Amino acid sequence: MTEARLRTFVALADAGSVRAAARRLYVTESAVSAAVAALTRDLGVPLVQKVGRGIRLTPAGAVYAGYARQVLGLLEEGRAAARGAADPGRGPLRLA
């Protein structure tokens, strides 16, 4: 499970189709499919279900998408905090 795979899964969940997710991420459709297949293997449960030309999240996929969004948000917060600690003068501007 990698950050890139989580980002790809969230993009797919938001976009509703492999094609749309691939366009958002500037990757191939096969890269999106491979990332989601790898997550599915890692978790051992199906995350998406094909519906016509799009996808629908399975119940497990919907739950996982919420956690994936939280994890990605925490990673961004962690990066910002680390940058702020490395350069304290660069932190966010706070007005009283």
Automatic annotation (TrEMBL):
Belongs to the LysR transcriptional regulatory family. GO terms for molecular function: DNA-binding transcription factor activity; transcription cis-regulatory region binding. Residues 1-58 form the HTH lysR-type domain. Keywords: DNA-binding, Transcription, Transcription regulation. The keyword DNA-binding applies. This is LysR family transcriptional regulator. It comes from the Bacteria. InterPro entries: LysR_HTH_N (IPR000847), WH-like_DNA-bd_sf (IPR036388), WH_DNA-bd_sf (IPR036390).
